[in-house]
């Protein structure tokens, strides 16, 4: 577990180590099957996998990169995408999210397991069943890592989490835990998921009211609360930017007074949250059909 957080070279060596990832996955599967999701060894295994999934899209070996990104060649040439990972800009995001992963292997081995739906379901199972904060945080964090990029892999993982594995109810529960880092990681994961336009209506329906409910009335002093608050605002921005329906949902759950208060609280400590709230307000105002409702 310590070695897995030793930087890019350490991650590379561990991903390449024959049988290591398979053994970790095998152990966790056994722990879940035996109804023992809270043991320390399971926590260690998940924390290692969390670390090994960090920057995975960027650090993948060339052979995987080519097979995963091969379909991008069919994307129209005006994207001017050089090489496998040349363009990560938001401009090509829309097209990338329509590019599916190659057919999943039924028996993934080694690094292939890290983004496979089997492991995604394991993380969601641990989020639901474990009561150990580090295990919950590492499971959420691994999914956050896997959904962090803008290529086909992050969007395919996001679709598995939301649509194929029905993961939103488990993630929603984590928004209401008392542990601040677990809550922060759950919100960061939702922020990544909410960038995928095809999933936004599902996410808004399932968790938008919960996101509004955990917004603070004003931004308290701690860094972690400010970061969480900023992340919530950016998630709500993603969900409401192109959906008047979702903006109305935010309004009906009494989110507007909270967001206004946060946007006006521009102390040094809370400036990140204040800026995020201001961006959200600006975006909400672009829904002209809601102006009279806002004024009320």
Automatic annotation (TrEMBL):
Under Gene3D superfamilies, the record lists: Leucine-rich Repeat Variant (1.25.10.10)
**Region Disordered: which residues?**
79-109
Q: Does the keyword Ubl conjugation apply?
A: no
GO BP term, example: intermediate filament bundle assembly
Q: Which GO terms describe its cellular component?
A: adherens junction; cytoplasm; intercalated disc; nucleus; plasma membrane
What keywords would UniProt list here? Cell adhesion, Cell junction, Repeat
Point to the regions of Basic and acidic residues compositional bias: 94-107
Where does the protein end up? Cell junction
Protein family per UniProt: Belongs to the beta-catenin family.
Q: What is the protein name for this chain? A: PKP2 protein
**Source organism of the structure:** Chordeiles acutipennis
| Taxonomic lineage from the root | Eukaryota, Metazoa, Chordata, Craniata, Vertebrata
